[in-house]
Amino acid sequence: MKTTHLSSRRHVTIPKTICDAYHLAIGQELEIESTPQGILLKPKKIMQHTSIEAIAGCLAYQGAAKSIEEMDEAIQQGNCR
């Protein structure tokens, strides 16, 4: 088991062997979670860049396209369906 310490600025150093094993890069964001077993650190998942064309199939709207004016009016009314 590896050990580390908490600095006066509440920083923790992760040993290089652990960083290498989990492919952690300098500056990478980590999520921290309190669990019944203790503290869990895990790499923050990075969303991959994509285009609207790649995800357009998940948009379920059926019908005629709305105009900008119709969309603005729905937003003002709080009716975004």
UniProtKB/TrEMBL annotation:
Organism the protein comes from: Methylovulum psychrotolerans
InterPro entries xref list: SpoVT-AbrB_dom, SpoVT-AbrB_sf
Name of the protein: AbrB family transcriptional regulator
Gene Ontology MF, one: DNA binding
Source domain of life: Bacteria
Domain SpoVT-AbrB: 4-49
